[in-house]
Amino acid sequence: MSRVRLDLNISIDGFATTTDQTPENPFGEDWGRLTRDYTATRTFRQRVLHDDTGAGTTGVDDEYAQRYFADLGAEIMGAGMFGLHEHGDDPQWRGWWGDEPPRIGGGGTTARSFLDAGLVDDLHVAVVPIVLGRGIRLWDDLRGLENGYEVRAEAAESGVTHLTFRR
Predict the structure, then answer these.
(1) C-alpha radius of gyration, the chain, whole number
(2) What is the pLDDT of residue 50?
(3) Domain 5-78+100-166 -> CATH class
(4) What are the extents of the domains in the chain?
(5) What DSSP line would sit under 46-83, residue for residue?
(6) What pTM was estimated for this model as a whole?
């Protein structure tokens, strides 16, 4: 049976996304700060930027980036994840992902909804050492979420703390 995964970066004050998305800046003002250490990894550079020079950081952050891309089927995300737009419903569409397990990519509201419904088997949260002070929090109304999961924490060289919750 497939396991549902959720991977998300949050600030130390718990914000997963900001609320300042615009058509000109679809990820919001703070996205670069929130994902800086992830986008610097060798794996991100290879998988997203198609950079095969070997450039990019290695170590703990890169190990989590490798896991992020492993065994990926569907990517579930909110409509605001890649900009401000509406998606029409197409009842005939069945997806392109096949039998691989789905991953919930965010944003914060979508992630929290899946966690609240108990639908996430494997949760990875990269806690980035920045303060956003605004946006959408991940942990609100999820009291006791750790119950039923094996929880681990690992510090990366970058200062990011990687939290994993696994059923």
Answers:
(1) 16
(2) 95
(3) alpha beta
(4) 5-78+100-166
(5) HHTT---S--SB-SHHHHHHHHHHTT---EEE-TTTTS
(6) 0.81
